[in-house]
Amino acid sequence: MIEALAELSKRIYWVKPIAYLMGFGFFGLFAYTVFSTNANEADVYLIPSVLGVIWSLLFISIVSIFPYVPSKPSSDEKFFKKLKVRFKRAIYHLLGLLFLILTIAVILLSLKMFGIWRADY
User: Fold this and answer.
1) Crossing angle (nearest 10°) for helices 2-11 and 79-120
2) What is the Cα–Cα distance from 69 to 40, expressed in whole angstroms?
């Protein structure tokens, strides 16, 4: 699982600056919506801006965390070096599981929030 996430994060590494730009842009849109004097006109952008920030953070996290997954230890390495690598890989497995759970949660949240947004506007 973590090898697939590492490969995916290396393939989409070019998305990192775009994700940062989109995150700052959506955060700016969110701030504009919250602090706008025309609250009724600006509210239309609230749900898309929140979802944009969440998706940007998800992309930034996969690109920032998973390219550095250590490779499996070979059989000729010393015991403590193997143990260290296995411990690091276990942490990456937990992060990978957390990332998959967060991705599913963000997909479900996006579907629900866009349904609400579409019904209101």
Assistant:
1) 60
2) 47
